[in-house]
Amino acid sequence: MKTRLFTPGPTPVPEPVMLRMAQPIIHHRTDEFRDVIRRVSDNLKYLFCTAQPVLTLTSSGTGAMEAAIVNTLSAGDELVFVNGGKFGERWGEIAQAYGLTPHQLAVPWGTAATPQQILEMLAQHPATRAVCLTHSETSTGVFTDVQAITAALRQQGYPGLVMVDGITAVGAHEMRFDDWDIDVVVTGSQKGLMIPPGLAFIALSQRAWEFNQTSTLPKFYFNLAEARDSLKADDTPWTPAITLMLGLDEALQMIRHEGVENVWARHGRLAAALRAGALALGLRLFASPSSNAVTSITLPEHGGAFMKLLKEQYRVTVAAGQESLKGKIFRVSHLGYYDEADMLSILFAIESALSDIGHQHPEGAGLAAAQGVFNQAARQRQGGA
Length: 385
Ligand SMILES: Cc1ncc(COP(=O)(O)O)c(C=O)c1O
Fold this sequence. Notes:
This protein is of the alpha/beta class. The protein is built from 13 helices and 13 strands. The chain has a 7-stranded mixed beta sheet, sandwiched between helices. It has a 4-stranded mixed beta sheet with strand order 1-12-13-11, with helices on one face. The longest helix is centred in the last third of the chain and has 21 residues. Bound molecules: pyridoxal-5'-phosphate (PLP). Pyridoxal-5'-phosphate binds next to helix 3.
């Protein structure tokens, strides 16, 4: 029977990507592979909206977060991070592991930090050298306006770094790395990039490369200056994950073909439809403001049975809540390779499972609400065309 994946990583892998990865392996120190690196590098810059090199690391996303810290900071440095979920928390854990001095801004899980709150943290900790943010907090489904925060910081003359975990935001939300004056963005392959887990990506601003020159934290495998220098020759310091790189080449060409702004718009449209559908079924949304990558929905009564039905009866895999949110929410992905029909299929599964546990709602309400969002978006596109 057909199964469907709605988790915010790994996300579904498109057929052209799978077919490309099924080709015989090639050697990496060849012109053929250097062509792949060149094309991938160019398309990654397009995706991040940057003229800076975007480096590809063989690791999961956390590796790129660690690389961001160890390549720019030094022991004892102060940094501010937002703990509004499991992944925001991770910035603090990495900083702690490397003997930095992290200052935590704790916000209730399900909400986002505001520019004002970050400015207040900086006023309390004026020696802060880096502010670490999470653009899309996957554990709660919250979107943080990193553009507004960065603009507010720069307006106040903040000379330090703004580091953004864009692991589930890149591809789902507008990210204009150069224009927004952000210093570090990281993402991972198993998310908006639509390939299996195993690669991470990182871009550094000119300011971040300057910090790199004085950074004394230990680095070897994740030495980004080496990766940057290798990339100048369309090469990598270590053996790259060749097969994943071939898949990436295909996925990035798909993104380029669709157009990055259309990709962002599609994520916005699918997220809006899913939220409308869930609300029409009488469910409650957990996050505000909500990410375009993942929607967190409060579990209905008999949540355990509901989750079991989704998986076993309707063969859809969604993500459960993590840590303190276990048993309280479920999370539905619309990150990467999804379209309108996917949203209708998950809403069908949700409505059916709700009916099975005795939940009362108007028949087809979720589907109708989602369809309404799609119709409205289509009218807007036609009107604007
Ligand atoms: C926002 C965010 N940050 C960090 C991570 C960690 O990435 P990885 O599990 O690839 O190391 C994830 C993974 O889901 C994530 O969603």
